[in-house]
Description:
There is one protein chain. Helices cover 39% and strands 18% of the residues. With 388 residues, the protein is an alpha/beta fold. Strand 8, helix 9 and strand 9 form a beta-alpha-beta unit.
Amino acid sequence: MDRVATDYEYFSSELDRLEHSGNLRTLHRAEHDGNYITVDGNRMLNLSSNDYLGLAADGSLFDTFINSLPGEGIAMSSSSSRLLTGNYDEFECLEQCLAEAFGTESALLFNSGYNMNIGILPAVSDASTIILADKLVHASIIDGLRLSAARCIRYRHMDYGQLERLADKYAPTCPQVIIVTESIFSMDGDVADLTRLAAIKKKHGNVMLYVDEAHAVGVRGANGLGIAEEQGCIGDIDFLCGTFGKALCSMGAYVVCRRVVRDYLINKMRSFIFTTALPPMNVAWTTFVFRRLPDFGVRRKHLDDLSCRLRGCISAMTECHSSSHIVPLIIGSSEEAATAASRLQAKGFYVLPLRPPTVPDGTSRLRFSLTAGITDMELTHLIKALQQ
């Protein structure tokens, strides 16, 4: 159909098509109360939050932060990019904390995970670069691949044999090869073998490794630094990325890397150069929470226990590849997934259907996103509801 700008017929037609296929998305007003959320008057246990450690619902943590602020206060807006007048001390402080915690030369902050993933790969690659990306990397990484001049090849999800063959094929003749993966995959909850990826990288002097730990930082590793810490390979990763908007209950993202990489990104990364920096107050809050990550071991252990129980329940019903706190229940069609979500919501559990294009056709699912704030009894009630 030709797009008709005057009466918006194309837009209406496309929305009708999405509704007919069960893939129409709408915004709902929500009221939050700790682990619970009220949507359209229905109060439910929130099983769709990325507040993995349950910190966003911890009012005492925020009160402690407020009481720790200096008397002169902290700016509520940077009012500029960092390259102009927006480079406040709070940014340098958090970047130093990150570099020290990860044992790297440097770190660089970004406004969001999306801002980070659409910017780094286009900045560090060119037309002679080959990028080998896992088939199921996040949409923000895919958009970064599209914005880059590099040739991108998507290897089968976690098929490291295929990846190694591709690296062996292209590394000898291409100036630069970059392997790209998530550590915990956001839709399936499965965990990448970063040590295997590091070994593939080490076979060739011109291969770099890019890892997005958005769903792992805070909840995995002895100090909450993610899967790279858990698997002992932080130093093998060239671009170790993470976000603050999930387990760390804040906003923004980071890469820990070599100093030369940081300096290069400051000069070449468009989504860093041409954007107003985060509010310094927000960055100060992030620093406050990040410094306390090692203290949240009890929360991490509780979340792991909850996750094991739910994975066991799902595995008894259908195939489950998750080994994390993100536990999908594959349904199949979008309509059936929406119906299953509505049924659980009616029982007091706020779980949402994930449908194409977020997931591949025929794999619509319920995605249970567990947090450390959920109690053992609440999870027991959920499991009983799933088994009915």
